[in-house]
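Continuing the batch. This is chain 6 of the set; chains 1 through 5 are on the previous pages. Same settings as before, nothing changed between runs. Recording input and output for traceability.
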Amino acid sequence: MRPKLRFLSDELIEQIIGEARDLLCNLGVEIHNTNAVKLLTDFGARFDKTKDRVYFTADIIDKSLKSTPSSFILYDSFGKEAVDLSGFNVNFTPGSSAINILDNKTGLIHRPTTADYIQFAKLMSQMNFINSQSTCMVTADVDEKISDSYRLYLSLMFCEKPVVTGAFTIEAFEIMKNLQLAVRGTKEKLAEKPLTIFSACPTAPLKWSQVTSQNVIDCAEYSIPVEFVSMPLTGFMAPVTLVGSLVQHTAETLSGIAISQLANPGTPILYGGSPAIFDIRYETTPMGAMGTMMIDCAYNEIGKYLNLPTQAYISLSDAKLLDAQAGLETSMGATLAALSGINNVSGPGMLDFESLFSLEKLVVDNEICGLVNRMLKGIEPKEDFPSQPRFEEMLRDGHLMISDHTRRYLKEEIYFPGPVIDRANRSRWQEEGSLTMGERAEAEVKRIISEYEPIQLANETKNELTDLMLSEAIKYGMSDLPKI
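Output for chain 6:
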């Protein structure tokens, strides 16, 4: 039996959706993109030009939800199925777009470089319980105008896993789309086997910028999946109540789905988000707060009620170091997300309000994901009835360590974590150096990177990726790319 968790009743979900629909139709959404406005007005929406406000219709909302796929699959660089975003399947991916990286040994932070990003991509190729990679950190050694596409380029060059990414400018989409076409070959093959998910973030409250709404439309043209990342902040840029914030989140997400589906019906989407409670004491948005995680799990229930695949920024921490707070917030988030059945869980590796990435935390979080995966398998009998033969064997032999039953089910029943998790007795732990978890994680990062084997993309594909990226860099005044 697979364990599950719920925060909302069906009746409350229906009330929240009803209120969100009323907001879209009666209060409207501020949209600063003529293409998006035209899409909506062509299908009957009313536009108030003086306020840049679009008033939806019930028909638009219903039509959009009807055409949205209930699931989709992501594929790796070689076209192999990698991430199944359906039902209650749970997949993990690192957090995105950190502006700093942590040096675990010194506790200091610095702006990430190409070398840091390559280490991350190499590490990701061997994170067995993290299903996709993300453009997790913003490299500081290239022009900021190519930072979005450059991160995708490095991900594709060094790791075969699909990528959760996004564009912060309209211009960046073109090169990012071309990088994917270089791997897949054609627009049709890319639509058939998606390689990336693009994040699209409405602005709270109830607003779409020129850039983000255009990204949604551009992704739809190529059937590139989009995760909608609504970010209500309770008591600040959203009602202070969790239900009120859920109403806002639902309205903003439904408005994005409408833009996407009117642009190209059937474009895959994730019903996602990155909401947070607002801690008025520090004026921060804690991702590790229980209220934040409850909103995540609850809007996931709304997404599932609408028969849509889901995403959340959860399983991360606001701690500044790889410490106890990092562990408790991340593991609690991963457990709640898994029990709720969030399809794509974004967070491993991330610290400090989504601004700091840690390679050491990534390998620790990979173990957390492994533990959670075991939990999701639940408890089921495996040749346990009748039970008497097992006990007769144990009484006869004094143990069951080499029993046929033990050998048959040992690895299936019991998850054995890697060396990051200490399970030695104290004397052995002391003999092996009395290492802290941070020190064990450092050693594991070094070991994994040293054993990295280059991705087996065809040389022609790698050359095409590099040529595309170099042309883009030259366009913005760079003479060459950093050495990789």
